[in-house]
Amino acid sequence: MRFRVLGSGSSGNTTLIECGGTAVLVDAGLGAREMAERVQSQGVDPGSLAAIVLSHEHGDHCRGAASFSRKWGVRLLGTRGTYAAGGFGAEDIAGWDVLEPGRPWACGAITITGVAVPHDAAGPVGFVLEGDGVTLGHATDFGHVNRALVDAFRPCDTVVIESNYEPALLRDGDYPWSLKERILGRFGHLSNEDVAQYIKRGLGEACRTLVLAHLSRQNNHPDLAHMSALSALRSRGRTEVRLEIAEPDGMDWITVAPAPRPARGPEQLRLF
Ligand SMILES: [Zn+2]
Ligand SMILES: [Zn+2]
Predict the structure, then answer these.
(1) Ligand of minimum distance to the alpha carbon of 7
(2) N or C: which end of the chain has fewer CB within 10 A?
(3) What CA–CA distance (Å, rounded) separates 173 from 32?
(4) 99 φ, ψ to 5°?
(5) Distance from the alpha carbon of residue 93 to the mean position of ligand 1, in angstroms
């Protein structure tokens, strides 16, 4: 399994994931034409995508979903809440399937499980994507890390997680107070400090690559997000974890590699 973030942040989120001949997009927050060009530039035919998997209805995740689906004949996969709030008409899209959080959905060589997350949307989810013996966790847009997400991401070899804002920059910035309160709230967005706490208390031992995504241009800086996560990883002695930042225009391919498992040979069996 490998993936490439093609867009990250409020200007539009979309990630291309490939595994065993199956390719899907997680979120479709760019314009349909722009998204098709970025997919094609990776040598992938947009019409060959098995699904567009939607996390929630906000424009920076859904903007191009309907027109991309219709033009390229790609079905959508999302929760009932996302469809209802996103206002997708059956005639606007190639087709759609309902993702029930917690219930795995087989999409070619990739099995996708939605994990409900706390965000001010109708049915927001993060995802666990499994295939080819590895597991990828992908979650952006949520206000706090809950127990369900920690448990769902524990076996993940790679985790893509939102690191949206630095609290001091947000508080001192130009956003109106109502928006600041929304972002800071339990159903808003995840801060650099929230991610640091997740690394210290929740990140699974299997994780070998951590990608920070959906950074705010106004209220964060890649160096601050990187430093905060790196110091949390070091404080836990997790020096084996590769740390990456998803830029607004995306990033290079990352291969999801399995963590080395402890050998269970006949030597160990003899102990019992
Ligand atoms: Zn977003
Ligand atoms: Zn959102």
Answers:
(1) 1
(2) C
(3) 32
(4) -100, 120
(5) 22
Ligand 1 midpoint to CA 141 (Å): 5
Q: Which of 268, 221, 176 is nearest to 9 (CA)?
A: 221
What's this model's pTM, rounded to 2 decimal places? 0.94
Which token pair is 228?
């905060």
Coil, strand, or helix at residue 134?
A: strand
Q: Which two tokens stand for residue 204?
A: 């699974």
Nearest ligand to the CA of 162 is 1
For residue 266, the CA-to-ligand 1 centroid distance in Å is 50
Under 8 Å between Cβ of 70 and 92: yes
As given in the structure block, the two tokens for residue 16 are 């291309």
For ligand 2, the distance from its centroid to the CA atom of residue 82, given in whole angstroms, is: 11
Q: How far apart are CA 132 and CA 158, in angstroms?
A: 14
The H helix count followed by the E strand count for the chain is 10, 14
Element at 56 (helix H, strand E): none
Residues 137 and 154 sit within 8 Å (Cβ to Cβ): no
The tokens describing 148, both together, are 């369900």
Query: Cα–Cα distance between 185 and 141 in angstroms, integer?
Result: 12
Q: 141 C-alpha to center of ligand 2: Å? A: 5
CA gap 226, 157 in Å, rounded: 19
What is the pairing mode between strands 96-98 and 76-78?
parallel
Which tens digits make up the pLDDT trace of 189-205?
999 999 999 999 999 99
pLDDT digits (tens, 9 = 90+) for 67-83: 999 999 999 999 999 99
The four Cα atoms 86, 90, 96, 98 give a dihedral, to 10 degrees, of 60
Distance (Å) of CA 118 to CA 79, 157, 234: 14, 23, 28
| Residue 247 per-residue DSSP state | B
